[in-house]
Amino acid sequence: MAAKVVTIASGKGGVGKTTTTANLAVALAADGHKVVCIDADIGLRNLDVVLGLENRIVYDLVDVVEGRCRLRQAMIKDKRFPELHLIPAAQTRDKNSVSPGDMIRLCDELRPDHDWILIDSPAGIERGFRNAIAPADMLLVVTNPEVSAVRDADRIIGLIEAEEKGPARLIINRMNPTLVKRGDMLTSADVHELLAIELIGIVPEDESVIISSNRGQPVAMNGNKRAGAAFHNIARRLNGEEVPFLQLDSRDGLMGRISRLIRPGGS
Amino acid sequence: MTAWIDWLTGRKDKSAGQAKERLKLVLVNDRTDLTQDALSRLKDELIQVISRYIEIDPSAVQITIAQDGRQQRLMADIPMLSTRKRKAGKLEK
Ligand SMILES: Nc1ncnc2c1ncn2[C@@H]1O[C@H](COP(=O)(O)OP(=O)(O)O)[C@@H](O)[C@H]1O
Ligand SMILES: [Mg+2]
Q1: Which residues of chain B make contact with A197, given a CB cutoff of 8 A?
Q2: In chain B, where the domains are located
Q3: Is the pLDDT at A93 greater than 60, yes or no?
Q4: Looking at the DSSP assignment, which residues form a beta bridge with residue A140?
Q5: Looking at the domain assignment, is residue A267 inside a domain?
Q6: Averaged over A209-227, what is the pLDDT?
Q7: Cβ atoms of A164 and A137 closer than 8 Å
Q8: Residue B93: what pLDDT?
Q9: Rounded Cα distance, A53 and A89, in Å
Q10: Is a pLDDT exceeding 50 seen at residue B79?
Q11: B14 vs A contacts (CB less than 8 Å)
Q12: Which CA distances in Å does B8 have to A181, A258, B1, B13?
């Protein structure tokens, strides 16, 4: 067993990196994979609350890096999924307490005993982002169908290419079918065409994402929710399965149907 | 290809159509570090240099940046004036 390291990045903040990391971790663990996720957003720790593990933290990433504890001691076991672990970020330290080399060493130590290592990157293009991508075998770039998010995603993809990291795969989060139908939101095909990297997931805007975060139970724990299903599909695609994309931005009427026929990527 | 679908579905006038057109320009600038202003200066200088060797119609020159996946391509379309036309003009046959 040698884990694949997948870093979830975005450029712009608030587009859904932490949500994506938590839900992919849950979806992969539910499929029986051994998963460890690392919160690399030092100073703005969040993955713990989204996963509902905030009360169990004793040690964090910086404690491991600075040798105050062993790696195993900082790994919080999720009781709902015995094969899911979290290494939380330090809340009171800054990003410079960890170096890209530290991240590579840490992941090398975790690789033999896991299938997937998911790293939740901070927003921006500074040190925290460099730390998060250093050990990555693959990058998931999360964006929203919105001008500023797409622009920042393009910048991140450019940096990933310049660092010869990758491959980078695209996740379009918070698609709103009603807005698309009205012509007031970029379609997934538009975003895909603009960013021109392989698409691995389209996640709908779904209030159950917020409700599940409130409860500390990622929406992927509930297979009935549309966003939950979308995250399960991404997990399966990560494993090399061919899964059709959910029909999220259907346009009603003849023209919509014709355009879908001509351009099936718009789903 | 997608442009006429956008037209067909009437999306061009909607805000999504505007978002896409604006993003296309912004991304080209971001990726190439080339502003619209620099591009038009490049065009002027290119016309000057080429005019030293061959006769061209400056108003017909088109310089564009085409997108090919994540690769940008600088495309110059420079129609040459044909010899016959040139001579016709000069000798006033
Ligand atoms: N598909 C979605 N539908 C509805 N809300 C979402 C969705 N994805 C994310 N959110 C909400 O957006 C906010 C930002 O998400 P988060 O994952 O924290 O972003 P980031 O980690 O990129 O800063 C959170 O409140 C989250 O619940
Ligand atoms: Mg986050």
Answers
A1: 70
A2: 1-33, 34-84
A3: yes
A4: A8, A169
A5: no
A6: 93
A7: no
A8: 41
A9: 12
A10: yes
A11: 182-184
A12: 14, 9, 11, 11
